[in-house]
Write a structure and sequence with these properties.
Pathway: Amino-acid biosynthesis; L-arginine biosynthesis; L-arginine from L-ornithine and carbamoyl phosphate: step 2/3
EC number: 6.3.4.5
Family: Belongs to the argininosuccinate synthase family. Type 1 subfamily.
CATH architecture of the largest domain: 3-Layer(aba) Sandwich
CATH superfamily of the largest domain: HUPs
Shape: globular
CATH topology of the largest domain: Rossmann fold
Radius of gyration: 28 Å
Number of helices: 14
Distance between the termini: 90 Å
Protein name: Argininosuccinate synthase
Pfam family, one: Arginosuc_synth
């Protein structure tokens, strides 16, 4: 059947095959009388998640299911630009879920326009950040399409409610009451939320970690890796050239083995509440540390300080779903100027959850042992520092002298019996 020829309007749903989006398909059909086409973004999630996903969508009532291969685009045009900026939300989170949303939304919208759909839908809850991320992207790219957000409309209040509906309708699902985590996976990261994690006093169980080895069980001996970096991107691992996607995949494997990239955090959601999540970003953590190591060598003091400000602003912008904005373009282009200097080699040690920078070098390095040495040198005149310090401290010296003179005058006023305020 050609979707364009069907008389009913069509909604394109961002479909993951999980509990929420599987329930949304029949709900939209029953409550809006629209056809539903499931849109699956392949951004490097597990093959088992994609296996049979089209059949599952159609069994749930979808008219069709389209799978878009976005893996390379995701890494090259979203993950690496973000890593090169150094965006890190609230000092911990490498934004693995947030950075995927603008790409999914854009590809979903483009497909909707291709089949003349009347609207878009997503499975984000009314409590979360993703509803904002999806809908800001939809609106920025085409505000004329209808948006359906079932979690803000339907009578179900929890995933337990959905499980009851699935059981009643004999729809299969891998979720259960005892294992009702919300997981999000792509080539960059995997996150786990919900379940026992909703109590901060509960220790994350083994079920909360999907990729990385428990640090206690990680190899007893460290492993060294040699990264070559050009223009803020890893281009080879241990001498083997790989494209960005394959580089990330390889580093994920190495990092997971050594328990790299695990964080268990409570973050501030955009909607105001706090939430807890276990995030695993092994390859991304290695790349992040390698890029920062080369920046230390190649960027001057003012540039690094400015870049840190850009990184902070970019982290909030990505977290809030404001990717398709002029501000994001501005921050990205500013960072790209710095990235052209960030190239060289880094040797890293991976050991039981730690990324240790052992060596780094670059043709663009501003570090000079001739100037920095504590030994005898012939390039730096230490007497020059005296004039520098006097100029740097000039405003402080003037303030101190002024305060000293004011105190002296106050002593005279008191001795003469004058009221201090009379001098004004």
């Amino acid at each position: 059947m050609h979707i364009q020829d069907n008389k009913k309007g069509t909604i394109v749903l961002a479909y993951s095959g999980g509990l929420d989006t599987s329930a949304i398909i029949p709900w939209i059909k029953e409550n809006y009388n629209f056809n539903v086409v499931a849109f699956v973004a392949d951004i490097g999630q597990s093959k088992k998640d994609l296996k049979g996903i089209k059949e599952k969508a159609i069994m749930s009532g979808a008219l069709d299911c389209y799978i878009a291969d976005l893996k390379n685009e995701f890494v090259e045009q979203y993950v690496y630009p973000m890593l090169s900026v150094g965006a890190l939300y609230e000092g911990n989170y490498l934004l693995g879920t947030a950075i995927a949303r603008p790409l999914i939304a854009k590809a979903q919208l483009n497909y909707a326009k291709k089949i003349n759909a009347v609207g878009l839908s997503h499975g984000a809850t009314g409590k979360g950040n993703d509803q904002v991320r999806f809908e800001l992207a939809y609106t920025a790219l085409d505000p004329t399409l209808q948006i359906i957000a079932p979690w803000r409309e339907w009578i179900f209040r929890s995933r337990e409610d959905l499980l009851k509906i699935f059981k009643r309708k004999n729809i299969s699902t891998t979720a259960s009451i005892t294992k009702i985590y919300s997981k999000d996976e792509n080539i960059f990261h995997i996150s786990t939320e919900g379940g026992i994690l909703e109590d901060p006093w509960n220790t994350a169980s083994n079920d909360c970690w999907s990729w990385t080895t428990n640090p206690h069980n990680a190899p007893k001996h460290p492993e060294e890796i040699h990264l070559n970096i050009k223009s803020g991107r890893v281009i080879s691992i241990n001498g083997k050239k790989l494209n960005p996607y394959k580089c990330l995949k390889k580093l994920n494997k190495l990092g997971s083995k050594h328990a790299i990239g695990r964080i268990d955090i409570i973050e501030n959601r955009l909607v105001g509440m706090k939430s807890r999540g276990c995030y695993e970003t092994p390859g991304g953590t290695i790349i992040y540390q390698a890029l920062r190591a080369l920046e230390q060598l190649t960027l001057d003091r003012e540039s690094i300080h400015w870049k840190n400000k850009i990184a902070l602003e970019m982290s909030m912008l990505i977290y809030d779903g404001r990717w398709f904005t002029p501000l994001r373009d501005c921050l990205q282009k500013s960072s790209d100027i710095f990235s052209q200097y960030v190239e060289g080699e880094v040797i890293i040690e991976l050991y039981k959850g730690s990324v240790i920078i052992l060596k780094k070098r670059s043709f663009n390095s501003l570090y000079s042992s001739k100037f920095a040495t504590f030994g005898n040198d012939k390039v730096y005149n230490q007497k020059d520092a005296q004039g520098f310090i006097r100029l740097l401290s000039l405003s402080s010296r003037i303030r101190a002298l002024k305060n000293k003179n004011n105190i002296f005058l106050e002593y005279i006023y008191v001795a003469l019996g004058w009221k201090i305020y009379e001098r004004f």
